[in-house]
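Changelog entry

Holo records now carry the ligand SMILES as an explicit input line rather than a separate metadata file. Below, a converted record for magnesium ion, shown in the new format.
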Amino acid sequence: MIHSNADNSMRIVFEAKSVNEAFARMVVAGFIMELDPTMEEIDDIKTAVSEAVTNAIIHGEAKEVEMLCSYTERELTVEIMDKGVGIENVQQAMEPFYTTKPEMERSGMGFAFMEAFMDGLEVWSRPGEGTKVTMKKVIGGCNE
Ligand SMILES: Nc1ncnc2c1ncn2[C@@H]1O[C@H](COP(=O)(O)OP(=O)(O)O)[C@@H](O)[C@H]1O
Ligand SMILES: [Mg+2]
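Structure line, unchanged by the conversion:
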């Protein structure tokens, strides 16, 4: 079992290439279809997943990105991991507008978006070891 205790789970590993950002968010969107999400929920989740995957690719500088998705009842958990350079100060990195690549579009708002579009966000990171972003969201709550 990929994720014990969950009702359903999946895991993929893909090359850390920008072309795979769209792939990763489509995979999550497909995985949650069973939960009958609204368009807004799908968009929110795709946005958050894009931000986390983009970070792994651009900042992590790892070869691969791993994504684990699971849900129990209506709560979705998405974990995005890279064995890249890691983050020195996670608290500082998560502050809105903080960025180590100021030339990029939407600079410094990735973690802020993940926080805004999901119900929960946790970041684990260690320099030289990598980064793990865990996001949670309750889906379909307003459909019932
Ligand atoms: N997976 C990661 N690996 C290494 N550093 C990261 C990772 N994700 C985020 N960071 C660091 O956190 C900072 C803030 O991230 P974010 O809020 O997405 O803004 P941005 O990506 O625009 O810089 C990044 O500039 C980078 O220094
Ligand atoms: Mg970012």
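Spot-checked after migration. Residues 51, 55-56, 59-60, 82, 84-87, 93, 98-101, 104, 106-111, 131 surround adenosine-5'-diphosphate (ligand 1) (CB under 6 Å). The CA atoms of residues 67 and 91 lie 22 Å apart.
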